[in-house]
Amino acid sequence: MSKAIITVVGKDTVGIIAKVCTFLADNHVNILDISQTIVQGYFNMMMIVDITEVEDRFGAMVEEIEKLGDSIGVKIKCQKEEIFTSMHRI
Fold first, then answer.
1. pLDDT (tens digit, 9 = 90+) per residue, 4-23?
2. Helices 58-72 and 16-26, interaxial angle, to 10°?
3. Are β-strands 74-80 and 3-11 bridged in parallel, bridged antiparallel, or unpaired?
4. 30-39, strands of its sheet edge to edge
5. Collapsed DSSP state (helix, strand, coil) of residue 13
6. Where are the alpha helices (DSSP H) in 1-90?
7. What is the pLDDT of residue 74?
8. DSSP at 29
9. Residues 29, 50: Cα–Cα separation, whole Å
10. Which has the closest alpha carbon to 79: 8, 16, 11?
């Protein structure tokens, strides 16, 4: 299984989770774990997802999900798990 970490940060508005999850489902990405909080009107979500079905077009999917974030007023970042882990190792 190939995994990625998706983070979504921005001012809270209606439908952020729905739009991100719809995008992922349309791209055959399975959500394995999800955590979200809202602090003083700011939305923060982290997801661990299975990207096995999109492995060959991962770069294109990352660009598309970042554009989705721009269109709904949030910042969306997506990294493969091994890169995320290497960057955050103490």
1. 999 999 999 999 999 999 99
2. 160
3. antiparallel
4. 30-39, 42-50, 3-11, 74-80
5. coil
6. 16-26, 58-72, 81-87
7. 98
8. P
9. 6
10. 8
Neighbours of 22 (CB within 10 A): 12
What is the rounded CA–CA span in Å between residue 49 and residue 61? 13
How far apart (Å, rounded) are the C-alpha atoms in residues 83 and 4? Answer: 9
CA–CA–CA angle 43, 44, 48 (5° rounding): 140
Q: Tens digit of pLDDT for each residue in 18-64? A: 999 999 999 999 999 999 999 999 999 999 999 999 978 999 999 99
Strand, helix or coil for residue 2? coil
